[in-house]
Amino acid sequence: MAITAQDVNKLRQMTGAGMMDCKKALSEADGDFEAAIDILRKAGQKVASKRADNTVSEGIVLINVSSDGSNGKLMALACETEPVSKVESFRALAKEILDVAVTTNAGSKDDLLKASLSDGRSVEENLVDMMGKIGEKLDIIGYENVTAEKVVSYVHSNGKLGVLLALNGLGGADVEELGKDIAMQIAAMKPVAVDKDDVDSNTVEREIEIGKEQARAEGKPEAMLEKIALGKLNKFYKDFTLLNQDFVKDPSKNIRQLLADAAKTLTVKEFKRISIGG
Question: 3-state SS of the chain: helix, strand, coil percent to 5?
Fold first, then answer.
């Protein structure tokens, strides 16, 4: 059957797909709009498969902290190129995904992908559809759901880096400003854990081996390698565990001391850091 410009425009308004894609889909579907929509969705699935190995180094990080400050959700929706990251439909989809994360209290990325958006279809289905429209890979590269007495957030000015900091033991202290400072520290200094005991055992073993090899390359005696490596490990803890890092704004004290100054019982329960593109 003949496909009119009005038909093509109608399908375009319904789906957001390109004019030529809509015309092709309608032709294949013999003018059946529902079938044409299915064709466009399948095209999205083809895009998702075709670009599965592509790098997503652009996008947007969004955060929601509950009104009482006890829960925070951090989500990063990534794409391939910067222009797409600025497209309104991409940013609107990211916001809607975060909104449904809040309303459903999604506990994981998998839960979030299965959650339904306003059109009744899942987040995952909407992402596939969007890939079909824009021709780029999209991926939720990170999602975190954090609960504590006080959750403080930070999003970097480029919109591609976000942090959630979970604090307990407030003891009545106002820790909003302190929390912001520590969240910014996490963004800048990239700690791998809260404290020494929280560092993954594989990381510890790797750092010890690296320390031994460095000492060996410097010609140190074999009998001294273990001791030297443990010394280097302590330096690693100081540089890469949050509580032992020097406070960037005042290097005379570390984060552990900073917390104690605010309230003796104040502790960092956990932190989450998500960055797009590095």
Answer: 50, 20, 25
Name the residue range of residue 99's domain: 54-147
Strand order in the sheet with 267-275: 150-155, 161-168, 267-275
Do 125 and 76 reside in the same domain of the chain? Answer: yes
Mean pLDDT for all residues in the chain:
95
In a domain, 69, yes or no: yes
The DSSP symbol for 193 reads: B
pLDDT at 133 over 90: no
DSSP labels for 128-174?
HHHHHHH-S--EEEEEEEEESSEEEEEE-TTSSEEEEEEEE--TT--
Q: Are 268 and 167 in contact (CB under 8 A)?
A: yes
35 and 58 part of one domain: no
Task: Report d(CA 255, CA 259) in Å as an integer.
Answer: 6
Contact 241, 255 (CB under 8 A): no
Distances (CA, A) of 129 to 37, 94, 97, 259: 10, 14, 14, 47
**Looking at the whole model, is its pTM more than 0.90?**
no
Residue 130's pLDDT is 92
Question: What pLDDT was estimated at residue 13?
Answer: 82
**Averaged pLDDT, 2-25:** 88
Of the candidates 147, 162, 186, which is a domain's last residue?
A: 147
